[in-house]
Amino acid sequence: MTKQKSTWVKETAAFGLIALFLYLFFFVDLQQDQWNVPPNLLTVNTIFLSIVLEAIPFIMLGVFISALIQVFVSEETIRRVLPRNALLALFPAALLGIIFPVCECAIVPVVRRLIKKGMPLHIGVVFLVAAPVLNPVVFASTYYAFQSKPEIAYARMGLSFVAAILIGLVIWLLFKKTNQLKWSKEELMGKGPKHEASPDIGKWKSTFYHAGDEFFDMGKYLLLGALIASVFQTFLDRSILQTLGSNEFQSPAIMMGLAYILSLCSEADAFIAASFGSTFTAGSLLAFLVYGPMIDLKNTIMLLAFFRTKFTLVLIGVITGVVYILVLICQALIL
Predict the structure, then answer these.
(1) For residue 3, pLDDT beyond 60
(2) Among 48, 130, 139, 301, which is least packed by CB within 10 angstroms?
(3) Quick check: 289 and 156 in contact, CB under 8 A?
(4) Residue 26 lies in a domain
């Protein structure tokens, strides 16, 4: 297949997905009686649209920040601001989330751009898992959702900070300075991005070009991840979860799995977690709140698209193991 034909197929598929999304959004409810659509499919459609509509603003924020980094931040700047010691650099990376409150829907393009600009892999991973949790918006929503148990909000912040440091440390031990990004043919040949800033284009115009390219690049993976997550949410039998909710060892793992499947935005997941308060232990609720923003189903689709498969699977395993062990320790000592 020629490059021109391949581009045409991709663009056609992208426009088809957009058209399908708009049709489902505006017309499927009006024609459900005519088509006699099964209720489960309508539920899938509703959840799919809600995930996409919730994520799109944050995706736009993420790709715009990514474009600003591409145009305005040089490799030398990143190397200059980061501590030279690989371990000392873990702590400021974990605190970046306080300054840059980026949702997990938007964090992948930002981290990918930073790593391409020279940020070490393990530092990028720390920012990847910490930023969606360690920000004032998430703390406020968690504190409000758990007004009767404010210790949950404080434990969420503290546990997320410690987990991010440990995850980054493990990734550094496993991968050191190896490159785990997927690079395009043009990037490997040194041709660089499609829209470089120049006197004719200007930096701000170049920024919007980059943001537009990255938005459509990320958008198709968001749609795929949202579709898979909506199918799981619709057909998952939650009564099975409730029967296991009181076990101190099983319930954190179950709630982590639920957080992965539901793919909720970190700014809103505390209210969902609070609804399980009468069924699940405090430790399992904390596992839900810490694990979900760090890795979920739609985020996994995006990571697989832009990072090597082995690295992505190892990262998921490391996040899962670290969070689960820390939750058990916190559950035994504090909650």
Answers:
(1) no
(2) 139
(3) yes
(4) no
Tokens coding 5: 């034909």
Classify residue 103 as left (phi > 0), alpha (psi -120 to 50) or beta: beta
d(CA 42, CA 185): 41
Which residue type, as a one-letter code, is found at position 83? Answer: P
Rounded to an integer, the average pLDDT of 18-38 is 58
Residue 332 CA to residue 6 CA, distance in Å, equals: 56
- Smallest CA-to-CA distance from 159 within 171, 151, 147, 169 is with 151
Does the residue 168 lie in any domain? yes
Structure tokens at 247: 């076990």
319-334: per-residue pLDDT in tens? 999 999 999 998 888 7
How much is the average pLDDT of 142-151?
Answer: 85
Residue 3 lies in a domain: no
Q: With bands split at pLDDT 50, 70 and 90, how would you rate the model's confidence at 311?
A: very high
The Cα–Cα gap between 179 and 116 comes to 9
Domain total for the chain?
A: 1
Q: What tens digit of pLDDT does each residue of 289-308 get? A: 999 989 988 889 889 988 99
DSSP reduced 3-state for 149: coil
Q: CA Rg, the chain, in Å?
A: 21
Residue 34 forms part of a structural domain: no
Range of the domain at 236: 39-333
Structure tokens at 178: 């190896």
